[in-house]
Amino acid sequence: GEPLVAVGDMVTYHLLEAGRVPDLALVDEQTKRSAVDESVAAAITGFDRTVEVENPAGSITRALLEAMREGLDSDATTLVDVAGEEDLAALPVVLMVSEAASVVYGQPDEGMVLVTPESGVRERVRSILERMDGDSAAVFDVIGRSG
Predict the structure, then answer these.
(1) How many CB atoms within 10 Å of residue 59?
(2) For residue 145, what pLDDT is reported?
(3) Spatial distance between the Cα atoms of 121 and 142, rounded to a whole number of angstroms
(4) CA angle, 72 as apex, 57 and 41 as ends, to 5°?
(5) pLDDT at position 146
(6) SS (H, E, C) 90-140
(7) What is the per-residue pLDDT across 15-74, written as a single tens digit (0 to 9) for each?
(8) What number of other Cβ atoms are within 10 A of residue 34's Cβ?
(9) Residue 5 β-bridge partners
(10) 65: DSSP letter
(11) Of the chain's two ends, which shows fewer C-beta atoms within 10 Å, N or C?
């Protein structure tokens, strides 16, 4: 579906190798807590624009959310290069995209997971985000509750 969102270096790499540039991709140059191979990092190209943000491990910062929102609102393909960790980005992005979208993230040692953000999935994601430590109101403020 459109847009196509990729969360993770290996997911982004494999989509690019298959000939599809994601509309929004989030990478941190890590896979399974280790640096990705240089050939993987070098192959993550072809985006119209790149945005760099800081997002510590285990968190979802306002900067990350705003970079994702800007990427989704743009007609340009966007690579968000995260200093820190992008793993949790799959949660809020499910609420940011339309039901026609596809969100793909990596499941270590398993492969890629495709999520279509229908209402049941969105409700589960909202519940998870509300229970996480931190300021969930700020998260919903940036992403909007209408998703």
Answers:
(1) 15
(2) 42
(3) 19
(4) 50
(5) 40
(6) HHHHHHHCCCCCEEEEEECCCEEEEECCCHHHHHHHHHHHHHCCCCHHHHH
(7) 999 999 999 999 988 777 777 788 888 989 999 999 999 999 888 989 999 999 999 999
(8) 7
(9) 24, 103
(10) H
(11) N
Q: How far is CA 53 from CA 57, 67, 70, 109, in A?
A: 13, 8, 12, 27
Q: How many CA atoms lie within 13 A of 119 on its CB side?
A: 0
pTM, full prediction: 0.89
| Cβ-contact 65, 92 below 8 angstroms | yes
96/90 Cα distance (integer angstroms)? 10
Q: What tokens were used for 123? A: 């409700």
Average of per-residue pLDDT across 119-132: 88
Query: Coil, helix or strand for 68?
Result: helix
Nearest-angstrom CA–CA distance, 77 and 65: 16
